[in-house]
Amino acid sequence: MLRLQKLTKTYRTGDKALNAVDLEIPKGQVLALIGPSGAGKSTLIRCVNRLVEPTSGKVHLGDGEEAVEITSMSSSRLRRARREMGMIFQEYALVERLTVMENVLSGRLGYVGFWRSFLRKYPQSDVDEAFRLLDRVGLLEMADKRADELSGGQRQRVGIARALIQNPKVLLVDEPTASLDPKTSRQIMRLICELCAERELAAIINIHDVALAQMFCQRIIGLQKGEIRFDGSPDDLGPDVLTTIYGEEDWKATIRPAEEAAA
User: Fold this and answer.
1) Which of 130, 144, 156, 178 is deepest in the core (most CB within 10 A)?
2) SS3 state at 245
3) Which residues does the UniProt record annotate as the domain ABC transporter (predicted)?
4) Mean pLDDT to the nearest integer, 111-120
């Protein structure tokens, strides 16, 4: 569903954020990106949809003959391709003065014409889908509330609904729990994983909480200095692996035993 080939990002300073990363994510798989700050996690996600331009390498979205190559697209083609890549941001990226419903419907901007979007006149089918998604994420009764009236967890749920109304093939999720308390963090991760399973979405989740990644994600990629140092099952994420990714530390209290994670 999503394939990265030799994806590289080098900044003008010469610093290499990504170094020839090869990665393939099949349909329906939820993958966690872990690693220290500066490892290249956010850069990788943003290079996929070209919010950050890769220096070299390729990104393929889709399967077989329907696959498209993102990195060589013109601006107009890229705008259309981004419809299929839902983005969920750490800081929510909501328009504070707009209602919850209006923020969700903004996920349809890539599909409606300029004047419809400017006047906020969306097709009834889009409005119906927005209501359905708000119900699914537990915010139906808040459809008319302004975004600045919501808690952090509620804002993140709006962001999830906004991404899903695009009807994407893949979700790119950048630190969705960074500003949330432990209970809300679990709820948000559970919701994302459930929705990916329901819609057979591939997802890349950049996350700092190793135990949370191990608890909810099917596959874990460990980045260090822009390179993949681990690619495997959450059950294989032992102290030696974490030392390779992050450096020396007592990791026994950080990771969850496999039998506990499965409970």
Assistant:
1) 156
2) helix
3) 2-250
4) 65
